[in-house]
Structure formats: structure tokens, C-alpha cells
Amino acid sequence: MSRHQAVRNLDYEDVLDEYDANDADIDDEGDQLTAEDREALSKGTTDVQDALGEDARKVSTEQIEEALWHYYYDVDKTVGYLRKTIIAPPPKTELKKPKETSNRFDAAAAKSAAIAKMSTKTSPKQRPNGTAPAEKINALSLDEPPPAKSKKIDVIHEFTKGQNKRSASFVVVGHVDAGKSTLMGRLLLELKFVEQHLVDRYQRQADKIGKGSFALAWVMDQRDEERERGVTIDIATNQFETDKTRFTILDAPGHRDFVPNMIAGASQADFAVLVIDANTGAFEKGLKGQTREHALLLRSLGVQRVIVAVNKLDMVGWSQDRFNEISEQVTGFMKGNGFQLKNVTFIPISGLSGENLVRKPENPALSWYTGTTLLQALEESEPLTRALQRPFRMSISEIFRSQHSQMTVSGRIESGTVQTGETLVVQPSGESAHVRCIEVDADLQDWAVAGQNVSIGLYGIDPIHIRVGDIISSKTEPIHTNDELVMKVFAFDHLMPMPVDVHRGRLHAAGRIQEIRAVLNKTTGAVEKKKPRLVQPGKVARVVVKLESKVPLEAGQRVVLRMGGETIAAGLI
Ligand code: GTP
Ligand code: MG
């Protein structure tokens, strides 16, 4: 895993520690380039030139070496950086460009590399192997724009009067290896948000490590570990747009070990694409595994609209019978779990070959199908209604340094509105922070509203007071913290007084079911039994959960209870 990718998974505080440690490295190790470095630079330069093709003429060897050094010889990132900053600096409509890295931290890294270019002190040859660009990050602060003044905008008025393109986020879920990342890679390729030559390069690289069938998945799976193992580990985001809508993809991991990351993705989504592997045995296995768990979690987290992509139909000869069999079983299952069938659509596809994603199928074997393509189904999915009038709340999914602000947090605005110059409260620390800038779909804007995925640059807060999973909220109506939650839950497993983890977005809190107040009637909510010793699976109950520390959770929020890697209940505070 490259250093910057590793950084993405750390807390902000850890990141700072890391840079501090590396400051020391710079002093200690001097400026010798080891034989290993030289070899990596030389090989990397050839690979980058290879990947750039014709464009290689537009950059000097020195520029390539500089970027390679900065990205710790990561060829993909180097190519991405060179393309973005030197070969084709982004025009204003940046959104149309394919996204080569999934990590906004890289943008900051790229920026600091650019700054470093101006400094003789930090030429590549002076940087010992493995050191982070600490001086460059410091240089970044000089470049920060002064804090913004509040323009006191009536955001709701601006939003409602504007001709805004619709924006919608969807999470892609399903059992491990169902083909979620491949499907998204193919969709982005078909829509030309990813270039063919990039996929060709992934193909060559994937072939080399015996993972040739994962080349399209690599569009989403950017971490080295994900590529080596052939599994998605954490949510990867990417964007594309059609004439009507700007979509944000949240590609979730299917592996059972990473369900908490899937929960984080599902809690940012307007709707979901549930991918099912139609192969003999694979569908049945999934239905006992994460197809089932993910569907339950979607329902529990309030996602109502689900497009069921019946995938890998190429492997069962595009069988209409198999498609019908799967659709029937999944329909029964979804109905049993409280989904309204008008919100569930079934689409036969092959993510690998791209059949029925963007264009109507041309394959005669699929002539029995006359319904919509996947893209049409995505466009027909209405985003959730936006809770504009409620106080501002946003759960922090990522913290990083961006081009515009040293401390940038990203996530989806759950409710309310936000504008530059505004003061916010971060919970559970209770500290204030000011909004320096707001980025929506890669454009800087004065304001943003509920439902949008945004990056917010903050200032005036010490990094130790802000972490992934925290909630930022309006200063006038801040979210409060709590260590005792009374909730109405649906039990997936037996519940009794026992330790549990409470999950909401990226927030995880350890606690204990302290008390079971009552078992309730599923439809009327009336008390069926007071103070039972145990809640049976399938029952609804009112329970009290005591947490080890105070966390920002409030009434009306949906949470998931897990224990020992299993989802045991979900419900409403
Ligand atoms: P996780 O994120 O780890 O849960 O996996 P995933 O659902 O993202 O699956 P991924 O896209 O990594 O694909 C898994 C394997 O299935 C790869 O070898 C793909 O080539 C293969 N695959 C995906 N879609 C199709 C398809 O439509 N047809 C065929 N034949 N194979 C497919
Ligand atoms: Mg995947």
C-alpha cells in the first residue's frame, strides 16, 4: 500500500504524528539516494512513459522523477498527477474528467509536490527513501487563502430558485465477488468517465500478478492490498453525470469482515444497487450471506429504493429461467423485509462484458428482455427528499489536507445547509470550527445543502478535536452527545443484556444492552411483553444501550447493533 493510501485510513492525529516522525528522518538520513531508489526511479520512469504513450513527450524526465519520488514510485498516481497538472490542467468543468485516484488526499499531495518544485531544498535527490513531504505540507499553509467572511446567504432560497442539476448517491452492495467493482468500472468506461487506455494498463498490470479478471474492478479498487487480494476493503467513491443527474458511486465491500464499511457507505446513499451473482450456487450462497445481510442493513438504514442487478448472466447462457428464479426468490425476501415492491427493480446484466448497462442489449441470447438498462434505472431513481429545513448535520467520512484547506472533512450532508464563513460545532469534542470553503462535485461553492456529498475546509480548530465518524453541526442548533440510548430495534438475532457495538456511518461506539424494556407489536407498536429476559429474532423491542463514552447520536437517527462481527439488530433512537 502506498504511503498516501495508508494515510487515508488513519486518524488525522496519526497523520500529523507521521509527518512529525518524518521531519526527523529528513534531518537524520541526509541526502543520499540509495541504489534501490535509483533502480525504482529508473524503472518507474520507463513505466510512466509507457503509460503516458504519446503524452510522454510533454513531460521531462525530471518532472516524472519528481512525481514518482513524491508518490513513492506509485506509477498510477504519478501518471494521474502528471496528466492532471502538467499534460492537461483541469478546465473549469473538471467533473467530466475520469477520476484516476479515489483519494482526495492525493490532490493535496500533488499540490505540495508542485510547491516543492519551486523549492531547491526539497528536490527529489535530497529526500531519503520513505520520508513524507513534511516541509511541503508546511509550505502549503503559506498558500492557504484567508478565512472567508460569511456572506449571510439565504441558502434555501438560492437552492430552490437555481436550476440545479439533480444529484444522487447510490451504494453498490452484495455478496463478496458478486462483481460490484467490475460493474462500476465497466459503467464508468462505457460512459467515458474512465479512459480505455487506463483499463488497458490495469489489464497488463493485473495479468502480471495473476488477477487479470479484476482489471475493471481496479478502476474502483485503488489500494494495493485490494488489488493483490482481489477484494474491496473500503468504500470507493467515484462520480459520473448524465444529462439529468450527477451521480456519486459508493462501491461497498462485500466481504463479511468489512460490513462496518458497507454501513458507512449505505448511510450516505439515496438508493442502492444490489448486485447478485447469478451463477449456480453463487446466488444461493449469497442469499445466506451478505446479499441477505446487506439488504437487511439497507432497510434498517432507511434506503428504500433498490435496483437488483442480476449479474454474470453471461456465465449461465443468459438464461431467462435463471433470471426469473432469482427475481422471484429475491422479491419474496425483499417483501419479507419490509421493502415496497414498487421500489425494487430487477435488471439482467453482465458487468464484465457490459451487456445492458448503458445500451440496450444487442446479444440475441438476451432478446427475451425488453425492460430498462441499468443506466435508465439509475436515472429513474429519485433521490431522497432533502431535509433542508432541519439543523445542519454531517457525519465525517474522511479527513485530509486538500488544495484549498489544510483541514478538510468530507461526507454527505444529512440535513440542513452550510455556507462559507459559518461557525460549526464538532461533536463529541464540542469544539467550534469555521468554514473556510466548500467543494461540491469538485467545484468551489459558497454553500451546500442536504443530500450533497461535499468537502468542507475548516479552520480555527485543533486537529486533535476532530476525527472520522464525528458529527459537524450548526452552532445555533448543535447536536448533543449521549451515552445512554433508548431505541426501538428489530432483532436479527437473540438479544439480551450483552455487549454491543453501535454503528452509524463511520461512527462506532462500544456499549452494552443494559435493559430490555419491552417487546413491541411489529405493526401497532403496542407493548406485548414488559421486561422480557430475551428478545427472539424477528421481534421488535425497546432496549436501552449504555455506551462507554458520550457520542453524538440523537433521536430520529437509525443505528445498527453488531456483536462479534455479526449484525444482531437495527433500529431507531
Ligand atoms: P468485493 O468488493 O470484494 O465484494 O467483490 P466485487 O463484488 O466488487 O467483485 P469484483 O468486481 O471484484 O469481481 C469479482 C470477480 O467476478 C472478478 O473475477 C470479475 O472478473 C468477475 N466478474 C464480475 N462481473 C462479472 C460478469 O458479469 N461476468 C463474469 N463472467 N464475471 C464477472
Ligand atoms: Mg468490490
From TrEMBL:
Where primarily located?
cytoplasm
Question: InterPro entries annotated for this entry?
Answer: EFTu-like_2, G_TR_CS, HBS1-like_N, P-loop_NTPase, T_Tr_GTP-bd_dom, TRAFAC_GTPase_members, Transl_B-barrel_sf, Transl_elong_EF1A/Init_IF2_C
Alphabetical GO biological process terms: cytoplasmic translational termination; regulation of translation
Localization recorded for this chain is: Cytoplasm
What is the catalytic activity of this protein? GTP + H2O = GDP + phosphate + H(+)
The Tr-type G domain is annotated at: 165-388
Q: Check the record and name the Pfam families matching this protein.
A: GTP_EFTU, GTP_EFTU_D2, GTP_EFTU_D3, HBS1_N
Q: Quote the protein name from its UniProt record.
A: Elongation factor 1 alpha-like protein
Q: Its family?
A: Belongs to the TRAFAC class translation factor GTPase superfamily. Classic translation factor GTPase family. EF-Tu/EF-1A subfamily.
The reply to whether Nucleotide-binding figures as a keyword in the UniProt entry is yes
Give the Gene3D superfamilies listed for this entry.
P-loop containing nucleotide triphosphate hydrolases (3.40.50.300), Translation factors (2.40.30.10)
State the oligomer form and interacting partners: Component of the Dom34-Hbs1 complex, also named Pelota-HBS1L complex, composed of dom34 and hbs1.
GO cellular component terms, semicolon-separated: cytosol; Dom34-Hbs1 complex
Report whether Nucleotide-binding shows up as a keyword of the record. yes
Which keywords does this chain's UniProt record carry? Cytoplasm, Elongation factor, GTP-binding, Hydrolase, Nucleotide-binding, Protein biosynthesis, Translation regulation
Instruction: Please provide, alphabetically and separated by semicolons, the GO molecular function terms listed in this UniProt record.
Output: GTP binding; GTPase activity; translation elongation factor activity
